[in-house]
Structure formats: C-alpha cells, structure tokens
Design goal:
The complex is a heterodimer. Chain A is mainly α. Helices cover about 75% and strands about 0% of the residues of chain A. Chain A has a single domain, classed as ABC transporter involved in vitamin B12 uptake, BtuC, CATH 1.10.3470. Chain A starts with a helix and ends in a 12-residue tail after the last helix. In chain B, the strands form two sheets. Chain B has a six-stranded mixed beta sheet with strand order 6-7-8-3-9-10, sandwiched between helices. The chains are: A mainly alpha, B alpha/beta.
Chain lengths: ~300, ~260
Amino acid sequence: MLSFISSLPGAIAQGAIWGIMAVGVYITFKILDLADLTVDGSFGTGGAVLVVCTAGGMNIWLAMLAALVAGCLAGLVTGVLHTKFGIPAILAGILTQIALYSVNLRIMSGKANLPLSVMKYKDILLVTLRNINKSLVVCALFVSVIIAVLYWFFGTELGHSLRATGCNPSMARANGINTSTNKIIGFVISNGLVALSGGLLAQYQGFADVNMGRGSIVIGLAAIIIGDVVFGKLFKNFALKLLGAVFGGIIYYIVISFVLWLGLPANDLKMLTAAVVALFLGIPYWKSKIAEKSIKQIPGGKTNA
Amino acid sequence: MLEIKDVHKTFNPGTINEKKALNGLNLTLNDGDFVTVIGGNGAGKSTMLNMIAGVYPVDSGSIIIDGVNVTKLPEHKRAKYLGRVFQDPMMGTAADMWIEENMALASRRGQVRGLKWAINNKEREQFKTMLSELDLGLENRLSAKVGLLSGGQRQALTLLMAVMKKPKLLLLDEHTAALDPKTAAKVLELSNKFISEEHLTAMMITHNMKDAIAYGNRLIMMNNGQIILDVSGEEKKKLTVEYLLDAFTKLSGAEFANDRALLN
C-alpha cells in the first residue's frame, strides 16, 4: 500500500498533464461536437518540438510556445481538410494524424525516441520526475491559466459563435456565423493545447517518443467522461466543467497506478482504458433502453408480442 | 426589396430521383410587402425560401435583395439581410445555450464577431423588454437553456430573434405548422404584429388558406416551381378559400392535393 501512496503525487502530476490535453479534446468533442483524432499525432508533435528546441538551447518558455504553435498548425490542417476538402471530421483527423507520424520523425531527425537529459536540464525543465513538488505547482499554474483564458474566450462574441456552431449549425448560419471558419478555429485551439500538454509530458518523462501520442484521444475522452460522471452534478459553470476534465485526467492516472500496483501488466492498460471509455459512452444509451423496457403497462390483448 | 429573376433549380439531376423544384421562377417584392405563399406539396415553396436564404445554390437565374445581387453569396453572408423562422421549432435556436445567449447571437447578425463580451447588461435589459412583449413569461428566464422551452416558446423566441435586428426580408417557412392551434394562432399574431410595427417586408409559407387570406397584402400560389397566381391589394381582401381552390384546379389542371389545406 505504501508504494501505491508514494506513487500518488507522480500520478497526480501526470494526470494533470493529460488533463490539459483533455481540455483540448473537450473543445472539439463537447463544444464543436466533432471527434478529432488529430490529437494522437499532435500530442507527439508537441513533445518532439519541445525536446528538439530545448536540446538546441532555446529558452524553455519559447520551446513551449513553439510546441503550442506546432499543434495549432496541425489543427489548421485538419480544419482545412474537413471544411475546404469536405472530408468527414473523423477521417480528416486520421489523415493528419498519419501524416504527423512522418512529420514527428522529421522533427526528431529520424529518431523514434529523443531523450532530454534530466541531469543536464533539471533546473530548466518546468516539470520533471525528479522534482514532483515543483511539477505539481507548475501543472496547477498551467491548468489555472488555460482554464481562465478559455473561460474568457468562450464568453466573447466569437466564443459564443463557436458554441452555436457546435450546437446548431443551421441556426448559426442563419445568424450570419461562418461555421467553417469557426470549426477551423476550434481545431486550431484544441490541438494547440494538446501539443502544449505533449510538451509538458516530454519534459516530465525526460524524452519524446514518436508513439507517445498513440491512444491519447481515448485517454482524453476517458478524462472528460470521468470528470462528467464524478463532477457533472456539481460543476455547472463552464470553467468548472473544464476543471472537471482535468480532475478526470487525475482520477484516471490514480486509478491506473492503483491497478498497476494490484499487478495488472502495463501492456494491458490500453485495453482497460478502451473498455472503460466504451462502457461510459454506452451507459446513457442503455439507460434510455431500460426506460423503454420498463414502461408501465395496463394488462390487455390475448398474447404479448 | 426582393427580385427573383428566372431561377431554376433541379435536385438530383440525371437520376431517377430528379426533381425540378424551381422552373423559371420570377418574383418582385416591393418594400413593405407581406406576401403569403400557398401551393401543394412539392410546389417549390420551401425551395424558393431556401434559395433566397442561400441554403443551396441556384442552377441559373439571379436573386437580388435590396439592390444587392446575392446569387453567389454563401448562406452566412446573406444572413445580414434576412430574418428566418423555420418549420421545425428546434431549428432556429441553439438548445444548449441560454435564452439571453441565443438573443445576443441574433442581435449580432451580419456583424463581425470579435473578442468583446458576448452580452452586456444594457442588452440584458433590452432583451427583457423584448421578451415581455411575447407575453410567455420568458423575461424572467434569461439564463434558462432554450432546450427546456416548449415548441411554441422556442418558435416565438426564434421569431423575436429573426426581427430584433431589423431584416430587409423576413422569411417564415410554415413556422406555425408544428404547433398546436392555440399556440399557432399566437405565434401568427406576433408575426403579424412585428411585421406591421416594424414595416417589414415578409414572405410567409402557410398551408392554412384562411390564414393566407387573412394576413398580408399579397398572396401568391405556386405549382411546379412557378407562380401561377399573384393577387394583391383590394382584390386580395375579397378572396375566399373556394375561389382559391377553383383557381388552383383551373390554373394547374389538377385538384389541390393537400389534406391539411382542405381540412382547415
């Protein structure tokens, strides 16, 4: 039990980093009502850009900015594929994601894994396994600033028009809103945040890997769903809903470290995550089915159909 | 105010489902005209309104609103000239957003949306005053989700949103068809009130011949994507349902096949 408890702070830090990525996914999945698979690629892009920039001697904050911009560009590509090429959002995301695999390898000069020596950079890195207390503070700072900025943005005229685009595109167009442009803006912001989160994770674990984003959309969805299930009744305000997604990420990582401590092989984790997400996505549907079955009837007819 | 010149539209051309929806449609509306539009199913009434709004492009012809040729403008750019209410009460509002948020969206129709706050307190007061005119008790529910409202309330709100920023042309596409008779009458009265108070130019599709006769200063009847009857002024005031049914049979060579219109 002690080893589990001692792993908690690390799990919280890592969960918060994935929580930032879940906030990015929230924008496309919840606000625009689109499933964007670009994130599996753009998460790795963020990590790769950060490691290459930092190792090249760039200031860590500038390197974070570079990761953010790289993610925004990835989102721009998906947005253009979806709105200007008429490709369905899911397929547009998959295309960008596949392309990003090559792009990420290019960024890392053809290497599948690029280390960021923790010994050499330990005073520079914003978050790192070697200093979990500092990592927790930095994560809290990032989460607060990102949620504050998004809260402001989605309260503006433009932010409102993005929400209308996701909620009812016909109504949005009838009120003069360019739904195509708005979707692109959503993809850009979302993937920017995802790449930022990838940049943080690369620092935290001390390396960038071409596969580090694989399955991240599922983790993002898991965080959003867990946040919704646990805090949905309590958190009605938009900022709190975003915070719910971050908490969802943290809970996800605590549960992961718990099942690992129980002895689940690490290789089976993705299977478990997918099963949990499928289960929670299915619950609302089953609820309606059960409601149908339990209709109160008045006896009548000779036989039951 | 509106000129439609020789507009053609064929859906699914070259397939077994080919449907000529508009067949050389010509129409000119004067400033302040309130036109009611009747016709059988598939006559092209909704297609005409959707063409004006730019939901899909025309095959040929021109559409001119207030002197501006909008034929090639996309839907969201034409929105600055148009107020629209749809048949489906769910279509005109964003269900997950509040009443005041929906109204704020509508009040910026045709404007560039920037990074200013979406709603300010002055607007909230204006919204309250406008909502109290609907007399549905919505003025105290500014922060209620629109999805919680009834179909009639949503349709009244959509109507208010369509006129709160004065449109050059108001398009009402059978906007009372999905409502119960009492609510339909109320929404229709509100529409008439807004149109006369604000001197709006408006087109209203309806399946109710009595309403088509009672409201507006002009009536057009459509068949096969063309206008077959156009009555206005004093002549319109003398119209009867029987006359319209006779006229339809004579002009189109078919019975007016629409149960809803006949039952009304």
